[in-house]
Amino acid sequence: NLTQRLAKVVKTMRGEARLTEANTAEMLREVRMALLEADVALPAVREFIAKVKEKAMGEEVISSLTPGQALVGVVQREMAALMGADLGPEATQLSFAQQPPAIILMAGLQGVGKTTTVGKLAKYLKEEKKKKVLTVSADVYRPAAIAQLKTVSGQAGADFFPSTPQDKPVDIALAALDWAKKHYHDVLIVDTAGRLGIDEEMMKEIAAVHGAIKPIETLFVVDAMLGQDAINTAKAFNDALPLTGIVLTKLDGDSRGGAALSVRHVTGKPIKFAGVSEKLDGLEAFDPSRMASRVLGMGDIMALVEEARKGVDAKAAADLAAKVKSGGKFDMNDFKAQLGQMKKMGGMASLVDKLPAQFQQAAGGANMDQADKQVRRMVGIIDSMTPAERAKPDLIKANRKRRIAAGAGVQVQEVNRMLNQFEQMQTMMKKLSGGGMMKMMRAMKG
Ligand code: GDP
Ligand code: MG
C-alpha cells in the first residue's frame, strides 16, 4: 500500500537539503508501483511520473520544509491537475445549445452505466436546471434496454420517446429530435447500445448517430472499476467521436479509480460527473482533488507528512510502547531516545505543556527553559556511560558517577539530578500501558 511505501521513503529522505534525481528516484518508484496497483494503465503512469519529476527538480521544492514533503506536495498537485483541477469548476458544467434542444449523446461499453446515467442526468437537469427533458433509446439490440430507459425516465420526471428494435438508430435519433423541437424540450438525451468489447460496427453506428444529430455534448461513460482496459476503450471512443466530456461511474465501489487517470491521459477531456450509486440521485459534479487523493491514497499520505513535520518518529514510539507493554525495562538508551524526541518536538517547555497533568510534575517542575538547556547536557552524560551502565543504571554508584561526570565535563550533582529524572521517567513509563504510551505520544504531537 502506498502509505506504507511512502512512510518508509519519507523517513529515509528526512534531513536532506533538497530534491535531486538521486533522492527522489526511490520515492518515484513507489508512486509508480502504487499507481500500477490502482490499475492505472502504464502509459498514463509513465507520463505522470515524468511530469512530477520535471516539476520536482524545479524551483517549487526549494522553500519547502523537507524533501519528502516537497515531493508529496508535487505528486498531489500534479495528480489533481491531471484530474482536471486546473480546468476550473466550469469544466464540469454541461453546455446548452443556443437553439434548443441541447442534445446529449451517451457513449460507452455495455454495462458501464449509460442508461442509469441518462436517468440521473434527466433528474438533475429537471430539478436543478429546470429543463424540460426528453430521452430516447437507440439501443435496438436489447428490447429490455428500451424498457429500462422508459422506467428511469419516468422516475426522473422526464418525457420518453418510444422506439422499437425494428428501427435504425439514426432514424430513432432523428425522429426524437423532431419530436423534441415540436414539443419545446430544452434537452434531448440519446442513449445508445454498448457492446461488451470494442467493435467496428458499434463505432460506425454511433458515429453515424453523432453525424445525424450533431450533439452539443458527447459524453463517454466509463466504469471506474474497469482497470487497465479503460485506456483501450477510451482510445477507441475518442478516435471515433469528438467527445466533450467523461462520466465516471461506480465510484461508490472500492476501486481506487485508476481508470480516471487512464481516460484523462488518452482523451484530455474533462471528467464532468461521477456516478456514486445505482439510484437516480447518485450523480455528483466531478471533484479532481478528491479523485487525486483517492487514486493516490493521499489522505493517509498527508497525515504522514504532518507526522514527519512534527518530528515524531512513530516507529520509535511504537517500539518503545511495545517494549514497555511486554514488560521490558525502560533504560538509559530509551531515555536518551526520548530526550532526542523532545528536542525535535520543540523542547521540554512546549512538551510538558502537552503532557497529562499528573505527569507534568514528574517531568521536572518549574523552570522548563533551563530544562531545555539541560537536555543537551543530559545527553552528554548518557554518552559518557558504558553500554552496561545504560542498560542497567542501578550499577551507577559513587565511583562510576565521578567517572561519568568527568567524561561529560559536569559536576557530580548534575549526574545525580539526571539519574533522578531518569527514575521519575522510568516510574512514569511503568504507569503507562502500551496504549497509554501511544496516547501520550499523540498528545505530545498536539
Ligand atoms: P449500460 O449498459 O451502460 O446502459 O449500463 P446500465 O445503466 O444498465 O447499468 C449497468 C449496471 O450498473 C446496473 O446494474 C446499474 O444499476 C449499475 N450502475 C450504473 N451506475 C452505477 C453507479 O454509479 N454505481 C453503482 N453502484 N452502480 C451503477
Ligand atoms: Mg443501457
From TrEMBL:
Alphabetized HAMAP family for the sequence: SRP54
Designated name of the protein: Signal recognition particle protein
Boundaries of every SRP54-type proteins GTP-binding domain copy: 270-283
Uppermost EC category: hydrolase
Binding partners and assembly: Part of the signal recognition particle protein translocation system, which is composed of SRP and FtsY. SRP is a ribonucleoprotein composed of Ffh and a 4.5S RNA molecule.
GO molecular function list: 7S RNA binding; GTP binding; GTPase activity
Reaction equations catalysed: GTP + H2O = GDP + phosphate + H(+)
An annotated GO BP: SRP-dependent cotranslational protein targeting to membrane
Domain notes: Composed of three domains: the N-terminal N domain, which is responsible for interactions with the ribosome, the central G domain, which binds GTP, and the C-terminal M domain, which binds the RNA and the signal sequence of the RNC.
Keyword list, A-Z: Cytoplasm, GTP-binding, Hydrolase, Nucleotide-binding, Ribonucleoprotein, RNA-binding, Signal recognition particle
Superkingdom: Bacteria
NCBIfam families: ffh
Pfam families, alphabetized: SRP54, SRP54_N, SRP_SPB
Compartment annotation: Cytoplasm
GO CC annotation terms, alphabetical: signal recognition particle
Family: Belongs to the GTP-binding SRP family. SRP54 subfamily.
PROSITE patterns membership: SRP54
Keyword Nucleotide-binding tagged: yes
SMART domains: AAA, SRP54, SRP54_N
CDD domains cross-referenced by the UniProt entry: SRP_G
